[in-house]
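Re: your question from the hallway

Yes, I did run it. Sequences:
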Amino acid sequence: MASRIQIPATKYPVERFTLANGLRVVLSPDRSAPVVGVAVVYDVGIRSEPEGRTGFAHLFEHLMFQGSENLEKLAHFRHVQGAGGSFNGSTHLDYTDYFEVLPAGALERALFLEADRMRGPRLTEENLRNQVDVVKEEIRVNVLNRPYGGFPWLKLPPVMFRTFPNAHDGYGSFEDLESATVADAQGFFDRYYACGNAVLSVAGDFDVAEATAMIERHFGDVPARPAPVLPDFAEPDLDGERRESYVDRIAPLPAVAAGYRVPDPIGAFDAYLPFSVLAEVLTDGDASRLVERLVQRDRSVTNVGGYLGFMGDEYQVRNPTALLLQAHMPPGGDAGKVLSTIDEELDRLAADGLQPGELERTQARMGARLLQGTDEVLGRALPMAVLELQRGRPELLNELPKLISEVTAEQIVAAAATLRPERRATVEVKPGAGA
Amino acid sequence: MTTKTLPDLVPDAELTLPRQAERKLPNGLTVIAIRRESVPLVEVRLRIPFGRAPLAAATLLSQSLFTGTATMTMLDIAAELQAVGGGLAAGTDPDRLQISGNALVDGLPRTLEILAGVLTGAAYPGEEVVTERERLVDNIQVALSQPAHLARVALLKRMYLTHPYAVQTPAPEDVRAVEPEALRELHADRVRPGGAVLVLVGDIDPEQAIDVAEKTLGGWTGEARDGDIPPTPALQPGPLLLVDRPGSVQSSLRIALPALTRTDPDYAALTLANLVFGGYFSSRWVENIREDKGYTYGSHSVVEHFVAGSALLAAADVATEVTGPSLLETSYELGRIASLPPGEEELEQARRYALGTLRLGMSTQAGLAGVASVYAGFGLRLEHLREHSAALAAATREQVAEVAARHLAPSRAVIVVLGDAEKIEGQLAALTVVERSAQ
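Structure:
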C-alpha cells in the first residue's frame, strides 16, 4: 500500500451578512470561470406540510415558477435560459431550494428573478390546476410507471417512523394534490416563504462589493417577515425490528432496503460524521465490505449502496434521519439472508476493526468526491445556503474533507456496533413482474 | 404595486480556451491534457474505437475489465485506486469502449499505472466474469421493465433497421453465452491504442501530464482493427409504431427526425431550430404540452451524434388519456417550426441559451473533460467550441427556417409510442396510420 495520501481541502472564501429585512446572504467569490451559481433556500420541506395535504411542499415548489409580481407565467424560464443559464428547484425533507447557474454577466438578472418571487408568486387557480396535472405526471413517470419507483425514499419512512411529518409520502396522494386550493397555497407562502426564513447564496465569478449592492437593490425592499418557529420532528428510536414488504407490479427482481437511526446531524455532528464514513466503508466500490461480500463472494445481491439521509443529502438534513443500506437481488433472492449477512459483516467490523489502509482509502475517495462536487458553482452555492440555513456555518463545506480525514477507526467501529437488527426498519420489494 | 424592470445582461467576455497540450504516442494513442486548476483533481477519459465489436461480449467486457490482472485481484485494483482518491469505470456505446474516472491530482501516476495494467493485462478470471455476467443479465432484465428503455429499443430498431446501431443492448441469452475466453480474445483483438484518445483535465501541467501518460501507457501496444461502421440509413417515415405495454399509466412518445453532423455548415442553425421547437425548457413544445396543457412532466428533443450518423430525437411521457392530443400538439409544433421562421426574440433567446450553456459546460474539470473527449471521438478539438460559437452567433432566422423545413417537418418523423395499446390505439389511429409492434 502506498504511503498515505494527503486529502486536500478547498479554501473557497465565505462572506456572510443579513439584510435589514432578515434575509441571510452567503457569498463565495471565485474568478476561475465566468459563471455564477445562485441559490435561494427556504426553511420548509416535506416534514412541514399539513396533514391532508401530502405533497404540498413539492407542489408549491412548482407554483414558485409560475409567475410573480413583475413576471408573467413562463417569464422566469425564458429570462434564465435567454441569459444562457439553467435553473431548477427541489423539495427536500427539511428545505426547498431554487437555483440558477448562468454566465457571470447574468447575475443581476438572476437576483431580480429570485427577489420577485420572494415578494410574491402569482398563485392563480389556472396555474394551480395546471401544475397539479404536471406533478401527477411527475409521479407517474418517477413512481407509478417505473419499476422500483420511490424505492426506498418513499417506501421506507412509513416503516421507520410513526409521526405524520416523518412517515408520510412526500410526493403526495393524487387525492390530496387534487384538493389543494389557492388559499392553501397563499397560506403556505405566508407562513413559510418569509425572507426571514430564507438564505440567498451566490458562488462564482463576481465582485463582492458589486454583488452586495445588487442584492441590496433587489432584495432590500422585500417586506420583512420573520421565520416561523421551527418544529421539533424528533421521534423515539425503534424498540424492535420492523419489517414490511410490498409487491411492485412492474419490478422484475426482488430488492430490500434497511434503515438505522443515526445521531442528530446538527446537534451531535461529531457523533454523526463517523456514520457518513461508515456508509462508504461498507459500500463504496468493489473493495468495500458489503460489495466484496454480498456481490462478489456470496452473489446474493447484484448491487448494494449505503448513504445517510433518505434523499442522499447527508449534510443537509436535520434530526431524525437514518443510515440506509439498499440492495437489488438476483431472481429468487432472499432478503432475510441478505440482512443476516449484513449483520454478520457489521459484527465482524465491530469485533475485528478495520483492515490496514481501509479507512484511509475510503477517506481519500470521499475527499475526491467532495472536491468534484465543489468544482461546480452550484456545488458550492447550494450546500453553503443550506449549511447557513440549518447551522449558520456555510464554511463547513470547506472543512468537511479535513473533518472526514480525522474520523478514527475506533469511531467507525463504535458506529458499526450501533447498527443492530432490533434498531432496524426494512422494506422489501417483491417482484410482481414475471422474473 | 411598483413595476420593476429586468436588469440588462452584461455581455460575455470573449471565449477563452484553457491551456492544453496534445501528443500522439508511438503506440498510436493520442493524449490530450488540459489545465484547469480549480480543484486538486484530475479527470481521466479514455475512448477506444469499438465499432462492430460483438454486442454481448463487448458489453460484458466493459463490466469485467477491472476484475483482475496477473498481479492484481479485483479487490487490489479497487483498493489501490481508492487509496489515491481514484475510481475508474468502463462502458460501451456502438462506437467505442470508454473508461472514465478521476483521482486526487497527486494520484494521477498511480491511476495511470493501474489503468495500464488493466489495458495490457486484464485477465478476465472465470469466477469474477461469471459474477459480472449474472449481474449484467439482471441489469438487462430490470432495463426491460423500464418504459424509457423499451421505447428506445423499439425506436432504434425502427430507425436503423439492419444497421449495426439498431440494437444497442444485448439479449440476456446472448450475454449468458459469453465465456471468459471470448473476452480475452476480444480484448486482445480490440483493446488497442491505435485510434484511441486519452483526455486528462485538471490541476496539471499539460506537458508533464502527457510525459507521465507516455511513460506509463507506452507499453500498451498492438494494431487496432478497422471498426468502421457504414453510414446510417436515411430515416424512412411510415406508420406510427405502437408498442403495447398493458397496464401502463403513461404513454412514452418517441420521435426520430433527420439531423446533421457537428461539422455540417448548417449544424448551428439546426441546433437553434431544435431549441426553439423542443430542445430546452423555454421551447414551444414544453410551453404547449406541459405549461399550457399539463399533459406531461417533461418533453425534450436533442440531436444525438454517433460516429456513423446523427439523429434528432424527441421524447415525452404523457398521461394515457391524452396520448392522442399530445401527438396532435407535437405534430402541430413540428409543422409550425418547419413552415414559419422563428420570432426574432425567440431566436435570440435560444441563441443566448446555446452560447451560455457552452460556457457553463466548460466551467468544471468534469465538464471540460466530457466536451474534449466527446469532440475527440469525432476528430475535433476544443478549438471547435470557438467555431461552433461563431456559427451560433451568426445563424439567421432564414437559415434556421430553411434547416427546420428540411429536418423537423412532421412528414419526416419516425414515431414510436409505447403504452397501454387498448387505451391509446384509437386515440392515435384518429390522427395517423398505426401499426402494432410485432413483439
